[in-house]
Amino acid sequence: MTDDFRKPVLFGSSAFESFQGGDDPAQISRVAHETANALINRVREAPDEQIVQRLVAFTDEHGIDAIAELWSRSAPRSLPGSLWRLYLLRALIRQDPEQTSFTFTRGTDLLRTIDPVVAGAETPTGPKEVTDLADRILRGVFTGDFAVALDRAAAFCRIMAQGWASLADDAEVLDPQRGSELTTRAARFEEYAGDLAGSARLWRGGSLE
Predict the structure, then answer these.
(1) What does DSSP assign to residue 80?
(2) Name one GO cellular component term (predicted).
(3) What is this structure's pTM?
(4) How far apart are CA 196 and CA 82, in angstroms?
């Protein structure tokens, strides 16, 4: 397993924590926004099941690098930035559904919020259920209420943040370095949760660009 982006790509969790993209010149920003808007508008105006399925599964065939090239350098609370986060989350889930489902279940057990209901995973949440959840959230981008899809993804991230934070506490005693790594991962999921929830509010207000 490697942190380098290839096609198809497999990347360690450190890629999620450290990948920021390079410079963001005006041309890259313009293309990112144009492609994101064109994709969303075209598919949502006339959703076709085969096209939607191909879009949901795009990174399975092409890897995450094509999406990263287009959208990863966009502002977090923007349309292309939101799409990048949704595709990245799906790729991470599919790369290690066993660990994801374990962490998700840990977070669900600890949280006393409505987030597990909002995320909408089937229970008990095993590898198949958490993988299906990722697909349903991304499908909702093209066929449902876009803000709801973003809120579901934000809830998923908050649950994962809680799960990773708990696992970090467990690791801290025997392996402080590992505990620190997991704490960083939890913080990144919390950051993504805030960005996705913020984008949902902007979408509802008609100002997500």
Answers:
(1) H
(2) DNA-directed RNA polymerase complex
(3) 0.88
(4) 6
